[in-house]
Amino acid sequence: MKTSLNRGFAIAAAGAAVFVFLALEPAQAQERKSLRWATSAVGSYGYQIAAQMTKIVEEALGGQYTVTVQPYASPTVAMKAVMDGNGEIAYTADIGMTQFHERVGGFKDYKPKMPEIAHSWYSYPMESMMAVAAKDADKFRCWKDFSGKPVFYTNAGFMNWLNWQRIYKVLGYEFKHVQIDPKSQSDALQAGTLAGAVAYTTAGRSLASYWKETEVRMDVKVINPCPQEVAKLKAAGLAVVDVDPKEAFTKDVGVKQIQGVPILFGYNMGTNIPEDVVYKMLVAFYKNKDELAKAEPGFVPMARDFAGMQVAGISANPDIPVHPGLARFLKEQKAWNDKWKIAK
């Protein structure tokens, strides 16, 4: 009986020891702060990227923060979640930042409860381009030839759809969108119901799945902007980038280089996130950029010109303030423009 009791006391003592040990964990571990990373839906590219970056961020911040990824329906919803106090890092795109700044679209009459998000980190581009049925390619020379013509600019409300509204606003062209089921795109192009259709790539590489189906079913040609259109877009702060057609399409699309206007996706924060936190994150991303690009092709453009991608993101919306952490980083990289404003 004594042996049994002694064993019981031994087990209880051991349990108490474990409890005391856990209770005496370092205060730092108990006081880890939270960084909630608001992204688009589970399975989306934006969610995937955020999930890949959590470990880098936690290590860069010395284990003082716990990063959790929280999915939302769209970048617009993610941005609002952060500015409503339900997150710290918002999944954004430059066109979404424009709409927020102008309080149009999904941000009409919106009033943030927390500090407004500022330019913080731009991570990968999607490139918008224009394509037509190969049989009709001779009818088009520039993007102005699509002004007022029926075009499928991707699904209404999508970021590429918004991007072409931005492009046409700069160029002064008429935006005439025809909404179709993306799966019927090849039929509509071949029948002449559509004059053209917008294609897009991620980091100049992969086409959307419905575009891959279109390419299998028909021959297409890409129509690039004319030089004067390129100049006008760049003057307005929009980038025009080259995409290798062999990386995007499996067939000849009639041009040696595709020219597209990128949407820069990123993850922005408000000034309630300290300068030092954002700066340390950027330094870590910069140091790991080549490894990130090897693991994820979407990071290749960022790895090629990390500071340049941040400059492009700011330049698309130069009236939106820059987070102090990014400002500090760009000044060290000799890439800061004194015309930009630092968020306060």
Overall description:
The longest helix is centred in the first third of the chain and has 22 residues, at 2-23. Strands 1, 2, 3, 4, 5, 6, 7, 8, 9 and 10 form a ten-stranded mixed beta sheet that branches. The chain is of the alpha/beta class. The protein is globular and about 65 Å long. Residues 1-29 have low confidence and may be disordered. It has helices at 2-23, 27-30, 45-60, 75-83, 94-102, 159-171, 185-191, 209-217, 227-235, 245-248, 275-287, 289-295, 300-304, 306-316, 324-332; strands at residues 33-39, 65-71, 89-93, 122-133, 151-152, 196-202, 206-207, 220-223, 241-243, 258-268. The relative contact order is 0.14. Helix 3 links the parallel strand 1 (33-39) and strand 2 (65-71). The chain folds into two domains: 30-120 and 269-332, Periplasmic binding protein-like II (D-Maltodextrin-Binding Protein, domain 2, 3-Layer(aba) Sandwich); 125-263, Periplasmic binding protein-like II (D-Maltodextrin-Binding Protein, domain 2), CATH 3.40.190.
Topology:
Blueprint: H1 2-23, H2 27-30, E1 33-39, H3 45-60, E2 65-71, H4 75-83, E3 89-93, H5 94-102, E4 122-133, E5 151-152, H6 159-171, H7 185-191, E6 196-202, E7 206-207, H8 209-217, E8 220-223, H9 227-235, E9 241-243, H10 245-248, E10 258-268, H11 275-287, H12 289-295, H13 300-304, H14 306-316, H15 324-332
Parallel strand pairs: 1-2, 1-3, 5-6
Antiparallel strand pairs: 3-10, 4-6, 4-8, 4-10, 6-7, 9-10
Helix pairs in contact: 11-15
